[in-house]
């Protein structure tokens, strides 16, 4: 039996509508859905007038006569029409097949729900708060530094035990689930930040499903263009929209998608009361930026593959982690579950930290493309040092056991162009001297 009252009904519908033989929405359809039919107005308002007392009461009861989100026209902390537009587009990009399958089966009740949030961390914390109670346990893989520290906070302050498991090995997840019946969710990133390890989503989902435990996937590094985890059996998907969906480092935002009854009965009350709501302007900006997401991903992934090959062949580079390279330990799996190899590369230089620092400082210069900065998924390429920046909060022993070495450098490939980036990397690897 599941720990979650919503799980069994969802599982039946997931099997009917969500898991799919085709692992990707066709690229042309993806581009068309992302472009949509024009942008919404920016409803830059905190509150919405009711037509009557009965109308106000009906909206609070969640009644919506014309099919819009019931809470999108009461008060912007609860929802907003501009955000609703963004949510609809994201929903289609992750779940169009679920919509199609459910409509074909004349399904009357909504299957999946979506909420846009003020940051990726707002989406992740809302989902986790909606999943756990004191005394519950979680399984987590190698995750982004703030997700890692959020899990440690849940453990230290709220009595939720976290089992840190190598989720790239589905058998280890299975073993941990078997030994720990109080586990209420499995949480992972694939590709993970920053080692770019890939988890077999279908295999982990099957292990979790056997125990009636939901699988949460942070799909930020892939974006919905490269990977659609519901098709592989995930139950809940979260994103930092700050990254590829925005694509220009112009806003902080996130979103969560999951079984409708989980989102409505468990996530929405957290959302309403904790207030992780995005501003209407940021939702509009993300609705604008998502329109060319697929085309941006195509271009940056193409560059990333060339750059990864260049780095792998470079005498000063010790090791390259890129799922699109044949040398990546899960290359075949990545090719199966992702449309392309992604636009993130991590690598280690021969000689360790000294040349790595020199390379990163080179990109801090004004006359080089790329920036020495955290974040990712932008038109601008970024280079950063996970051990002292994005993952500085992960205890050193855990960091090292997960492959986040002191020498590891993370690169987010943007849209400057392959030749320009390769030329600059070559220049930087020579110590910044021509
Ligand atoms: C994989 C991943 N998930 C979540 C986040 C958090 O997103 P945000 O900064 O939008 O809160 C990040 C940020 O770097 C990330 O890399």
List the helices and strands and how they pair.
Layout: H1 7-18, H2 27-35, H3 53-60, H4 81-104, E1 112-117, H5 120-131, E2 137-140, H6 145-158, E3 161-164, H7 170-179, E4 183-189, H8 201-210, E5 215-218, H9 223-226, E6 236-240, E7 254-259, H10 260-274, H11 280-289, H12 293-313, E8 317-321, H13 331-337, E9 344-349, H14 353-362, E10 371-372, E11 382-384, H15 396-401, E12 409-412, H16 418-429
Residues 119-121, 144, 146, 189, 193, 218, 220-221, 240, 242, 252, 254 line the site of pyridoxal-5'-phosphate.
Descriptive account of the structure:
This protein has 434 residues and is of the alpha/beta class. It folds into two domains: 7-291, Type I PLP-dependent aspartate aminotransferase-like (Major domain) (Aspartate Aminotransferase, domain 2); 293-429, Aspartate Aminotransferase, domain 1. The protein is 42% helix and 13% strand. The protein contains 16 helices and twelve strands. It has helices at residues 7-18, 27-35, 53-60, 81-104, 120-131, 145-158, 170-179, 201-210, 223-226, 260-274, 280-289, 293-313, 331-337, 353-362, 396-401, 418-429; strands spanning 112-117, 137-140, 161-164, 183-189, 215-218, 236-240, 254-259, 317-321, 344-349, 371-372, 382-384, 409-412. The strands form two sheets. It has a seven-stranded mixed beta sheet with strand order 1-7-6-5-4-2-3, sandwiched between helices. Strands 8-9-12-11-10 form a five-stranded mixed beta sheet, covered by helices on one side. Strand 2 (137-140), helix 6 (145-158) and strand 3 (161-164) form a beta-alpha-beta unit. The chain is globular. The mean pLDDT is 96. Bound molecules: pyridoxal-5'-phosphate (PLP). The site of pyridoxal-5'-phosphate has 14 residues, from helix 5.
């Amino acid at each position: 039996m599941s720990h979650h009252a919503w799980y069994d009904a969802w599982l039946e519908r997931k099997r009917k509508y969500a898991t799919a033989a085709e692992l990707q929405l066709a690229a042309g359809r993806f581009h068309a859905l992302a472009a949509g039919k024009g942008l919404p107005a920016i409803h830059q308002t905190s509150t919405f007038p009711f037509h009557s007392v009965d109308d106000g009461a009906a909206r609070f009861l969640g009644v919506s006569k014309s099919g819009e989100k019931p809470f999108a026209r009461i008060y912007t902390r609860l929802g907003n029409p501009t955000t609703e537009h963004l949510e609809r587009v994201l929903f289609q990009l992750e779940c169009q097949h679920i919509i199609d399958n459910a409509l074909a089966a004349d399904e009357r009740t909504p299957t999946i729900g979506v909420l846009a949030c003020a940051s990726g961390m707002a989406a992740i914390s809302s989902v986790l708060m909606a999943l756990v109670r004191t005394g519950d346990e979680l399984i987590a893989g190698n995750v982004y530094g703030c997700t890692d520290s959020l899990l440690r906070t849940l453990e230290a302050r709220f009595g939720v035990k976290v089992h840190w498991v190598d989720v790239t090995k589905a058998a280890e997840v299975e073993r941990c689930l078997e030994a720990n019946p109080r586990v209420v969710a499995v949480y992972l990133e694939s590709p993970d930040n920053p080692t770019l390890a890939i988890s077999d989503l279908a295999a982990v989902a099957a292990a979790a499903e056997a125990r009636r435990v939901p699988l949460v996937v942070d799909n930020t590094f892939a974006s919905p263009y490269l990977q659609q985890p519901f098709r592989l059996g995930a139950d809940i998907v979260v994103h930092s929209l700050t990254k590829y969906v925005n694509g220009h480092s112009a806003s902080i935002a996130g979103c969560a998608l999951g079984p409708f009854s989980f989102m409505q009965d468990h996530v929405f009350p957290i959302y309403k009361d904790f207030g992780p709501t995005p501003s209407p302007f940021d939702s509009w900006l993300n609705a604008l930026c998502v329109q060319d997401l697929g085309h941006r991903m195509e271009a940056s992934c193409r560059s990333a593959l060339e750059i990864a090959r260049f780095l792998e062949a470079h005498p000063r580079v010790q090791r390259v982690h890129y799922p699109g390279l044949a040398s990546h330990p899960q290359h075949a799996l990545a090719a199966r579950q992702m449309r392309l190899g992604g636009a993130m590369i991590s690598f280690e230089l021969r000689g360790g930290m000294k040349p790595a620092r020199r390379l990163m400082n080179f990109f801090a210069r004004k006359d080089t493309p790329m920036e020495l900065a955290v974040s990712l998924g932008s038109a601008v390429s970024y280079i950063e040092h996970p051990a002292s920046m994005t993952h500085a909060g992960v205890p050193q022993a855990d960091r090292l056991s997960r492959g986040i070495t002191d020498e590891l450098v993370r690169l987010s490939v943007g849209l400057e162009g392959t030749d320009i980036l390769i030329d600059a990397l070559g220049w930087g690897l020579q110590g910044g001297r021509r």
